[in-house]
Automatic annotation (TrEMBL):
This is DNA repair protein RecO. PANTHER family: DNA REPAIR PROTEIN RECO (PTHR33991:SF1). GO terms for cellular component: bacterial nucleoid. Belongs to the RecO family. Residues 1-78 form the DNA replication/recombination mediator RecO N-terminal domain. Involved in DNA repair and RecF pathway recombination. It comes from Paenibacillus bovis. InterPro entries: ARFGAP/RecO, DNA_rep/recomb_RecO_N, NA-bd_OB-fold, RecO, RecO_C. One of its GO terms (biological process) is double-strand break repair. Keywords: DNA damage, DNA recombination, DNA repair.
């Protein structure tokens, strides 16, 4: 059967001497693996299509739910800026690997496609990568069923006052209830405000948000703790990003 879809290349790997297998996050058919014959050859007309982070239209033949074989394709947005800058490439690879690990094969991918497409577009426009990635992580957690409870205390329902973040319990604790998790950490009002905004905000509607460096550092640390505690994914791209950030510091 012939499929024609819009998709984003979230993974690309060599296969044999001159071929590639790319994994697409598609708008209508979830995550799809597609074999691309001759993609590594210098004069291949498909060379640009298999590059990571490429957004394009792909036609492929597939029988059942197995791997497809590319028939033809067209690049809509190459996102070449994201591959040329090592920091942007690291963030982009992290977002793509998150989708690759969190999205099951053939699972409906409309939500993931829209969020990832906006993430890559905003990243290329120069948006703050820490703020943007934290919002993307929030959307991934929510879509996976592990969205943190940040509007009210998980036990008392309080909405005002000091709050502590419990990554293990998946939300915030009031001062009275902080005993529920001795490992909980105090969250600043500014970061809590951002977390509450992110829990309601579609990434496609993200405006320009300027935050102080200490706020960025706290936000990144809290979201990392939620991702590790709730999803437990060991991602190579996450480790590389952390190494890169240490090197830049």
């Amino acid at each position: 059967m012939l499929y024609r879809v819009q998709g984003i290349v979230i993974r690309s790997m060599d296969y044999g001497e001159g071929n590639k297998i790319m994994t697409l996050c598609t708008e209508a058919h979830g995550k799809v693996a597609v074999f691309v014959r001759g993609a590594k050859k210098a004069r291949s007309r498909h060379g640009a299509l298999v590059q990571p982070f490429t957004y394009g239209e792909f036609s492929f033949i597939r029988s059942g739910t197995g791997m497809g074989t590319l028939n033809q394709g067209e690049v809509i947005e190459s996102n070449h800026k994201l591959r040329e800058d090592i920091t942007l490439a690291a963030y982009s690879a992290y977002a793509c690997e998150l989708v690759d690990k969190a999205l099951l094969d053939n699972e409906t991918g409309h939500f993931w496609f829209d969020q990832l497409k906006s993430y890559l577009s905003f990243l290329g426009e120069g948006r703050d990568p820490v703020v943007l990635t934290s919002l993307f992580e929030m959307k991934v957690l929510q879509a996976a069923g592990y969205g943190p409870q940040v509007d009210t205390c998980m036990f008392s329902g309080e909405t005002e006052g000091k709050f502590w973040i419990s990554a293990g319990l998946g939300g915030i604790l009031s001062e009275k209830e902080r005993r529920q998790d001795p490992a909980a950490v105090l969250v600043s009002p500014g970061v809590l405000k951002l977390l509450r905004l992110f829990s309601r905000l579609d990434i496609r509607r993200l405006g320009n948000i300027d935050v102080k460096e200490e706020t960025r550092a706290e936000l990144k640390k809290i979201m990392n703790s939620f991702m590790e505690a709730q999803l437990g994914l060991k991602l190579k791209s996450r480790r590389f990003l952390e190494q890169l950030e240490r090197y830049e510091i």
